[in-house]
Amino acid sequence: MADKQALHQTYLPKSELFESAHVKTMEQYNEMYKHSIENPEGFWKDIAEKFYFKTPVQGKFLEYNFDVSKGPISISWMQGASTNICYNALDRHVQDGNGEKVAFFWEGNDPADEGKITYSALLKQVCQLANVLKNNGIKKGDRVAIYMPMIVELSIALLACARIGAIHSIVFAGFSAESLAERMQDGEVSALITTDGFWRGTKLVDLKSISDKAIDLCSEKGLQIRTCLVVRHLSPSDEIVETNGNGDQCDGVAKRPCHKLKVKWVEGRDQWWHQVVPAASEECNCEWMDTEDSLFMLYTSGSTGKPKGVLHTVGGYMLYAATTFKYTFDYHNGDIYWCTADVGWITGHTYVCYGPLLNGCTSVIFEGTPFYPDAGRLWQIVDKYQVTKFYTAPTAIRALMKYGDELVKKYDRSSLKVLGTVGEPINPEAWVWYYNVVGDARCSIVDTFWQTETGGHTITSLPGCTPMKPGSASFPFFGIKPSIVDENCKPVEADQEGYLVFSQPWPGIMRTVYGDHQRFETTYFKKFPGYYCTGDGAKMDKDGYIWVTGRIDDMVNVSGHLLSTAEIESALIEHSSVVEAAVVSQPHSIKGESTYCFVTLCQGIEFTEDLVTELKAAVRTKIGAFAQPDMLQNAPGLPKTRSGKIMRRVLRKIARGDRDLGDVSTMADESVVDTLFSLRPSTV
Ligand code: WT7
């Protein structure tokens, strides 16, 4: 256990590690920050000069309205200029003579599976896939769903879409068929790119059959997916058949452990990647995109339960992904960078794929989990590739802490310089362990606060200059102007909690919710006219450090994944035995938060172990395994106001076993509270 003082002290960046940092002092940071806020056009114009634009800006460099009372919310950067993000991520580096540089080292789920790909090889395959997409009739503006594990082909797929101007919609491979179908329908996608299957630790995920089911669900609702491209990662082929010594057939990249995955095939719709991609032409011109054309959509939970397709555009996102990557990780040529996030989430979009590639960086892509074959896996990979910049989530750090220091110390970590964290507030104990044990008290920690909606880091320390306070994301990134306000939009005093809002646009901010601009305005701009509302609570201390305290809406952050309580409730209510459900968040020692579900059953139905198992499975099927509830409780009645609103504040207290309920004068029937306390499982 770290001592109290270690948790509350301020840590200074080690100057010997950061002599050549892009930002070396707080004076330099303050100066750059001031410039970025006072003159955003000038600040980002200088940055834009480092990128390739086919045609220059022809309108305003920045034009926006952040105030709903003045008209529709709109944001545009670099009006009229054209570019292509894939060109800037790949072609530019190959033309500069860096084609032989490794873009990605790939590390499989099994430690014996590995691979690598250079910038020029990546470009070649991206062009080939882009041609395959075009041959299938996919063109600029069409949506393409991508549902894949962490393999190099996932990055190829997203870059190929970007190259031809198709809008990618990546769905994390942990989502269920129903969730995939819902996202494909909302985005009206024309094609799906997927994989036969993959191993995650010792678990086999049969991705193609989930994809088949999702495509069928779409077709029932009238959306026909005519093209399904499938990467052969596991299943045996007719052509080259190898054996792994155990008598199992195998081929493809992931060699072990092999198995007999059978893939169902729909002729005319399904195409093997390895049959069509290598056969396609290696030449594919970029589609020159208007900077405000759509680049991708990515779904995030919404408090109404229906996921929102967060839409990002080409030009602004490109500048922001590249710039945040460069400064937050203090990127220099020669770095080996590794972000453990899945490309299915925004962290993977911006900091596995676009950000590193736009900077010409060499990074690691990891297919597996931190616990397989043992809990030393992350540090073994750091050692193997001599990783210099490492980025992961507090939930992983907390889980690994429990295995003790030996599994870390066994591996060489002397290459490390920057350790990043993202996804939720990091508790100071985990921070101090990350700092002392993983980083040997040498490295800078960057605690990066941001969201799917923000495209890139918004509040973060910078490794070469920011004095670090464990648990605080510290200061705003360039171009971000934060305020912490109360219900009436008045700034709160130091150390007081309020809503974290941003008052001017940065290039990477989302532009709309796909197909629902009104929802975009209501969710983010209505509460505080003139501000983008993050939905998070925060306070600022006397030194100006920002401490994000967590969501203030009906969202739960489980292991860094945002889930909407409404979405889980609706999955539970769909079960024929349930009449009503209310889901609240509950602190969890590893996941940060977990879900605690109160369910009211139909007359005559008993609350049994079997029913609990069924209800958990219902949520898995509806949303995905990562959303499975941790705790279910029988609730013959729910605490409600006289007007019938469920009092979640009270339910949170009950879930925590806290009898100090606060003001319950508006409650219709107080007796339900005692009943709920008496039915609370003893295991919580
Ligand atoms: C929510 C966004 C983009 C990161 C991956 C999650 C929470 C994220 C931090 C941090 C405190 C954090 C917030 C935010 N969050 N990073 N460093 N400190 N909270 O993306 O699914 O869009 O979730 O994650 O609550 O609003 P997301």
From TrEMBL:
Identify a single GO molecular function assigned to this protein: acetate-CoA ligase activity
Q: What class of enzyme is it?
A: ligase
An example Gene Ontology biological process: acetyl-CoA biosynthetic process
Could you list the residue ranges forming a coiled coil in this record? none
**Gene3D superfamilies per the UniProt record, alphabetical:** 3.30.300.30, N-terminal domain of ligase-like
Q: Where is the AMP-dependent synthetase/ligase domain?
A: 96-512
Per its record, how is this protein called by name?
A: acetate--CoA ligase
Give one Pfam family. AMP-binding
Q: Residues in domain Acetyl-coenzyme A synthetase N-terminal? A: 29-89
* Record keywords, A-Z: ATP-binding, Ligase, Nucleotide-binding
- Which family does the entry's similarity section mention? Belongs to the ATP-dependent AMP-binding enzyme family.
Domain AMP-binding enzyme C-terminal span(s) in chain numbering:
567-645
